[in-house]
Specification:
Strand content: 25-35%
Number of strands: 8
Number of domains: 1
CATH topology: Rossmann fold
Shape: globular
Structural class: alpha/beta
CATH class: Alpha Beta
Number of helices: 7
Order of helices and strands: HEEHHEHEEEHEHEH
Helix content: 25-40%
Strand order of the largest sheet: 5-4-3-6-7-8
Largest sheet: 6 strands, mixed
Length: about 190
């Protein structure tokens, strides 16, 4: 079985739930994808890292680093960085805080010293609904002088996030869309 099909199995087994859920965006939904249940699993984390690394490698602009908003992106950026090292093409990871650090450096970005000034970065998220989290990350990363060259997710819920990001000039690349993962068409 290929990596993508196996990751789909794991997502459906560990992360997908049906019911009534309130999402980060405030919207309600009849299903939920708790990505961390898969990204924090050893096999799931590895497969996410492998497939996201492949997206980075296929990007027309070379990527210098990979990052995202804590907490959802933490296991993903680590997995991509470790896979990149194993593939002998090391890419450092960074994490964007929700709030600036209240002591020490006061940074929004952890791991910043591993990035060269003006680095082209890829941003990752486990699940995208409206794109709001990624827009915050983009703003913080660009305010630090880095260029966003790629925006990726494991699951695009197909609820407007990709369109909002594209309107801002950041097309979203997903390992799976809602339709590919669960067979439910876009609302």
């Amino acid at each position: 079985m290929d990596a993508r099909e196996r990751l789909k199995e794991l997502l459906l087994e560990k992360s997908y739930r049906e019911g009534t859920f309130t999402l980060t965006s405030g919207k309600t939904s009849d299903f939920y994808v708790d990505g961390k249940q898969t990204t924090l699993d050893a096999e799931g984390g590895y497969l996410c890292g492998k497939l996201l690394f492949e997206l980075l490698q296929n990007n027309e602009t070379p990527i210098d680093a990979v990052g995202g908003m804590t907490l959802g992106a933490d296991p993903l950026v680590t997995a991509v960085s470790v896979v990149s090292y194993l593939e002998k093409q090391p890419i450092p990871a960074f994490i964007v805080r929700k709030e600036a650090k209240g002591h020490g450096t006061g940074n929004y970005i952890e791991g910043k010293s591993n990035l060269k000034p003006g680095a082209v970065v890829a941003l990752v998220e486990d699940v995208v609904t409206t794109g709001g989290t990624l827009l915050k990350v983009i703003e913080r990363v660009e305010n630090e002088g880095f260029k966003v060259g790629l925006v990726t997710t494991i699951v695009d819920r197909q609820e407007g996030g990709a369109e909002i990001l594209a309107e801002q000039g950041y097309p979203l690349k997903a390992v799976f869309t809602r339709e590919q993962l669960i067979g439910k068409p876009k609302p």
